[in-house]
Design goal:
There is one protein chain. By secondary structure, this protein is mostly helical. The chain folds into two domains: 45 residues, no CATH class; 74 residues. Helices cover 66% and strands 10% of the residues. The chain has a two-stranded antiparallel sheet with strand order 1-2.
Length: 119
């Protein structure tokens, strides 16, 4: 862990503990050491909500990446499939959603074929 991130964690941990003790607001602290990212999760956060939040970051990357990038289509369509899956985690997919996901799989397959043809 870098010394700057250690300093941030050392300052944040006691603050979260204090907030938890004084105001009964329970949080969870997550740290991705490799990425240098600290996350603070509220007590209502579950694995589905956290995964959905992470996909928002992926979608932002897909939107800001030029469409001519060879991996853009893979990233974008895979993210959209994952997003729909998470949104419907506790319910059934509609036939339209299944159809859209199938179309996106076709788009991914075409992108992979294009990549394979380059090599």
């Amino acid at each position: 862990m870098s010394s700057s991130m250690e300093k941030v964690l050392d300052r944040v941990k006691p603050l979260l503990e204090e907030i938890g003790n004084k105001e009964s607001i329970h949080t969870k602290l997550g740290f991705d050491e490799e990425a240098g990212i600290i996350r603070i999760y509220g007590e209502g956060s579950d694995s589905i909500k956290r995964a959905h939040s992470g996909l928002s970051e992926v979608l932002e990357l897909a939107y800001t990446t030029a469409e001519h990038h060879p991996y853009w289509s893979l990233l974008y369509h895979a993210n959209e499939i994952a997003r729909t899956t998470l949104e419907k985690w506790e319910s059934d997919l509609t036939s339209d959603q299944v159809s859209e996901m199938s179309w996106r799989c076709d788009e991914i397959k075409m992108a992979l074929d294009r990549l394979g043809n380059k090599h």
